[in-house]
Structures are given as structure tokens and as C-alpha cells.
């Protein structure tokens, strides 16, 4: 596969060839890539792929398999990938980011790919031009956890009724087993009610934001162990929003975020992102067809 | 764009998760010469999470 090849081409993104990406060797986006390399353009049929030469030892199939589970390496590569995509996005009306670790042997391979997918790329660029992706995550604030560091102070939830947090009281030995079970059941019920309330509120926020978006995509909730939030991640969503509607969208998020603590929730906005979540053109779905199964 | 790099560690890590959501489950998927088909993304992510927790333990001040 990589016979005697010491370098491979890491591909970052596809965009329209407007000539703005510059000609010849040297940096294209001004940003360095995943291996600290300059990024250049490979052109074919009116399209451009941004690529960089990377060491084969790290980025061939075997190298990738070994390294993908090395968090420090993965973070380095992910941030390098994003750096190039962000820099490209700043200067182009539309950029199609590629999935992490898309690697080619040489420019001929990149050109073949561009030619083969010319129509699909053109359609995706048309569809996504002038749009940006925004990320919105919702976490619970209380959930019996310690106060969030440097976060909005957890407001006393206005929920009437028992708070599961305040009563991890050990069952009194004298109490009958039936009382104990009843108490446990009441606690469970209170917890379920709280969850239901929280999920409803999160769904309401998502529905409100979806009216401002052309497409939405839901990601699996992030694990609270790694988010730095004590709360539960109840929504992890991406929204495709026309640029001119961006201010309205972020204002809507801010408004909802301001009210969310009343429901025991915290809303967090990220972006604008390149349309990572929407390149497949299948709202809320993994690319199944149209993208050529690997 | 999200202010990465300047924020506290927790914030940076947070946005790393957001980034990995997109880079491992979004983006154009191509069958190139050498495209690693990250079909086992879920496995990668599981291991990733274990790694993150160990990192967290290390660089906490």
C-alpha cells in the first residue's frame, strides 16, 4: 500500500475554485496543517481540495490505527484539521470539511476523487453556501452534583415537591421494610418527574431553535464524566442556519439560555462551524447513500 | 472561532468533544486511495473517553 512512500496527502476540505486560493506551492490558507505542514490546493474541474503532505509513518492505515486512540495525538490532529477548515471558511463562501483522517497517496488520487464526485460536491456547495453550523448543548445544572465551577450559580429550582438531592437519608433502622421501599419509590418517582420535566424543557428549546434552522442534527449526549459539567447532557444538537439569520439565531439561544435555569438547565452555544454536520445532505442521518460506501 | 486555546483546560476539552463529534461523525466521507474507513468510530470513542479521564487526572492543578 505505501511501498517506499514517505509522504502522503492529508485532505481537509473541498471548495470551489475561485482562484482565491492562490497558485503554485506555498501556503494556501495561511494555516498549517495536522503535521505542521503548509497547506496547498489541488485543483480539478472548478473545484479545489486543500491538502498537505504528512509523514506516511503516522498517516498510513497502520499508523492511523495505532495513533487514533492516543488522545494527545488525536487532539493535535483534530485541532490542526479544524484550523485549516476555519481558515478556509474565512475566505470562501462555502467549504465542505472532510472527515478526520482522509488520506491519499498522491495528487493523482485526489484529482480522480474530485472528478468522480464532481456533481455531488457541486450540489452540496450550492446547498450549503451562505450557511453556518451552530452547536447547542443543554446540560442539567443540579442533578445532585456539586456546584459547577465558574458556572452560573445553580439557582434553586422552582420545582415544587420533593427534591431527590436533599434526602439521601439512611433508612431508619426502626422503620419497616415497607416504609423503606415506599420511600425509595417516592424518590425514584420524584427523580423521574424531574427528568421528564427537564427533557420536555430541552425538547422545547430544540423545537424553538429548529424553526430558525434549515436542517438540524442530533448527536449522542456527551458523557458527563468528560464534559466538565456535573449535569447530564440532555441535548447535543447542530443547526444549519443561513448567515443572515445568524444574529437572530444566537439571540434566540441567548434568550432561551437566560430562561433555562428556571428549568434547571444550562444552554451552551458553539460556532459558527463549517457545516460538518450537514455535508451529507441527509438531515439527522448518517451518510448512507450518495457518499459512496467505503 | 470558539475561542479555543485561550480558555481554561476544561473549556478546551469541552470544545474538543464538540470537535470530535463533528470530525468523527460529520464531514464528507470519501473512499479514497487510502481513506481509513473509520467504521469503528464508536470503539475509538469509547477508548477516547477512557483516555480523557486519565488525562484529566494528570493535568489537574
Notes on the protein architecture:
The complex is a heterodimer of chains A (294) and B (61). Chain A is an alpha+beta fold and 294 residues long. Chain A has two domains: 7-129; 133-278. In chain A, 36% of the residues lie in helices and 23% in strands. Mean pLDDT of chain A is 82; it is low at 145-168 and 283-294. The longest helix of chain B has 19 residues, at 41-59. Chain B is flat, with a radius of gyration of 14 Å. With 61 residues, chain B is an all-alpha fold. Chain B has two helices and no strands. Chain B has one domain. The chains are: A alpha+beta (294), B mainly alpha (61). At the A-B interface, strand 1, helix 2, helix 3, strand 4 and helix 4 of A face helix 1 and helix 2 of B. Chain B: Belongs to the gas vesicle GvpA family. Chain B: It is found in: Gas vesicle. Chain B: This is Gas vesicle protein.
Low-confidence runs of at least 5 consecutive residues of chain A: 145-168, 283-294
Q: How many β strands of chain A by DSSP?
A: 8
- Unreliable stretches covering 5 or more consecutive residues of chain B: 1-10, 37-47, 50-61
Q: Estimate nothing, just give the exact number of structural domains of chain A.
A: 2
- Helix/strand/pairing category of chain B: mainly alpha
Biggest chain contact? A-B, 66 and 42 residues
How many helices of chain A? Answer: 8
First-last Cα distance of chain A: 17 Å
Question: On the 0-100 scale, what is the average pLDDT of chain B?
Answer: 56
Could you spell the SSE succession of chain A in H and E letters? Answer: EEEHHHEHHEHEHEHE
* Alpha-beta classification of chain A: alpha+beta
Rg from Cα of chain B: 14 Å
The side-by-side strand order for the widest beta sheet of chain A comes to 2-3-1-4
Amino acid at each position: 500500500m505505501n511501498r517506499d512512500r514517505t509522504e502522503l496527502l492529508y485532505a481537509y476540505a473541498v471548495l470551489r475554485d475561485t482562484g482565491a486560493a492562490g497558485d503554485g506551492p506555498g501556503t494556501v490558507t495561511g494555516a498549517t496543517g495536522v503535521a505542521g505542514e503548509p497547506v496547498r490546493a489541488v485543483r480539478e474541474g472548478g473545484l479545489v481540495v486543500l491538502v498537505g503532505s504528512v509523514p506516511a509513518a503516522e498517516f498510513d492505515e497502520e499508523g492511523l490505527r495505532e495513533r487514533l486512540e492516543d488522545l494527545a495525538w488525536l487532539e493535535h490532529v483534530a485541532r490542526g484539521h479544524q484550523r485549516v477548515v476555519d481558515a478556509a471558511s474565512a475566505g470562501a463562501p462555502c467549504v465542505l470539511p472532510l472527515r478526520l483522517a482522509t488520506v491519499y497517496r498522491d495528487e493523482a488520487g485526489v484529482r480522480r476523487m474530485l472528478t468522480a464526485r464532481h456533481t455531488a460536491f457541486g450540489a452540496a456547495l450550492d446547498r450549503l453556501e451562505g450557511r453556518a453550523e451552530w452547536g447547542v448543548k443543554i446540560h442539567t445544572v443540579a442533578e445532585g452534583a456539586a456546584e459547577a465551577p465558574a458556572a452560573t450559580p445553580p439557582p434553586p429550582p422552582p420545582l415544587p415537591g420533593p427534591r431527590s438531592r436533599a434526602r439521601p437519608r439512611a433508612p431508619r433502622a426502626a422503620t419497616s421494610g415497607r416504609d423503606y421501599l415506599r420511600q425509595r419509590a417516592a424518590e425514584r418517582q420524584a427523580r423521574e418527574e424531574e427528568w421528564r420535566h427537564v427533557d420536555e424543557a430541552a425538547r422545547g428549546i430544540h423545537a424553538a431553535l429548529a424553526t430558525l434552522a434549515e436542517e438540524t442534527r442530533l448527536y449522542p449526549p456527551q458523557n458527563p464524566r468528560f464534559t466538565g459539567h456535573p449535569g447530564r447532557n440532555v441535548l447535543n444538537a447542530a443547526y444549519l442556519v443561513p448567515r443572515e439569520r445568524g444574529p437572530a439565531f444566537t439571540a434566540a439561544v441567548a434568550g432561551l439560555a437566560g430562561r433555562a435555569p428556571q428549568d434547571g438547565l444550562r444552554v451552551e452555544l458553539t460556532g459558527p462551524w463549517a457545516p460538518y454536520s450537514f455535508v451529507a445532505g441527509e438531515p439527522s442521518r448518517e451518510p448512507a447513500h450518495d457518499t459512496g460506501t467505503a | 472561532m470558539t475561542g479555543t486555546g485561550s480558555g481554561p483546560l476544561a473549556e478546551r476539552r469541552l470544545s474538543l468533544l464538540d470537535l470530535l463529534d463533528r470530525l468523527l461523525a460529520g464531514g464528507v466521507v470519501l473512499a479514497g486511495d487510502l481513506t481509513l474507513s473509520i467504521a469503528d468510530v464508536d470503539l475509538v470513542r469509547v477508548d477516547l473517553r477512557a483516555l480523557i479521564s486519565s488525562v484529566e487526572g494528570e493535568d489537574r492543578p
